[in-house]
Amino acid sequence: MDAPTGENDMSDLRLRSAAQYRLRRLIGNIGFGFSVLVLVSPAILFFLWMLSLSFKNELDNTDWPPVFIPESPTLDNYREVFARNDFLRFAWNSIVVSFGATGIALLIGVPAGYGIAKMHAMRAAALILIARITPGLSYLIPLFLLFQWLGMTGTLTPIVITHLVITVPIVVWVMISFFEGLPPELEEAALVDGATIWQAFRYVAMPLARPGITVATILSFIFSWNNFIFAMVLAGRETRTLPVAVNNMLTFEQIAWGPLSAAALLVTAPVLILTLVAQKQIVAGLTAGGVKGA
To answer: What is the pLDDT of residues 178-222, one digit of tens each?
Structure first.
């Protein structure tokens, strides 16, 4: 009679332990979700408020107390954005600059990341990181004087070149973590079979680091697309990018919140859509790089 009683006690203990584990896990998930909500809610609130401003006229935008949901939404603010700016031309300029800077950064940054990872040249990596965290204004004045002396101001070329200060460090640092995590035996086997170091890089390392290349491409494009200061100073009347178009909505008389919000949403929409579509690739790529690098 004692054995069944002991077995029942053990079974009850297991059930209580499982219930406590599920309860702790539930509390942890709720706490994590609440923390994420607290961190994200200000950005969501600002975005929704900007969306509300873009669909209201200026009288409603300056009304007090403020009205979040307009009674009669209007698209006049978006029409004004296209009327006051050559928005399609600016969009094309942003596409050319972002894709150009991202493509050149991949050509430079992927081999650089491979070389730094294999040679353990962390001083070079630190130097590239310093170049990234240094404020852009530190580069702007000498670069502007250089491009002005070369007669290149007012074209897209200097904007693409200056954006490399942003995109190349991102690509290099993302790729370092991936290449450091690759098994060295694979490349050593290719070298033993007669491959050169460039062939081992092209046919062995690059295919394995494809998730990292994808992440580096997306992040470089986003940072290049959102950059404002370089295009503001170096671009001409016909070579402005979309962030500069938002600045064009500001006037000396007053701040037109409706057109300004509409222009900001139009600039943000491509990057927001790209981030939502590619969020799984971004998370998976960064997670894989972090695990491999560890």
So the answer is: 887 777 777 778 777 777 778 777 777 788 888 788 888 888 888
Contacting residues for 19 by C-beta, under 8 A, at least 6 apart: none
Handedness of CA 203, 210, 167, 156 (dihedral sign): positive
Strand partners, 250: 255
Q: How many of the other CB atoms lie within 10 Å of CB of 291?
A: 10
* CA dist 3 → 10, 105, 265 (Å): 11, 71, 71
Backbone phi and psi for residue 23, each to the nearest 5 degrees, phi listed first: -65, -45
Tokens of 247: 């600045």
Classify 256 in phi/psi space as left (phi over 0), alpha (psi -120 to 50) or beta: beta
Q: How many C-beta atoms lie closer than 10 Å to residue 235's C-beta?
A: 21
Asked whether the beta carbons of 286 and 215 are under 8 A apart, the reply is yes
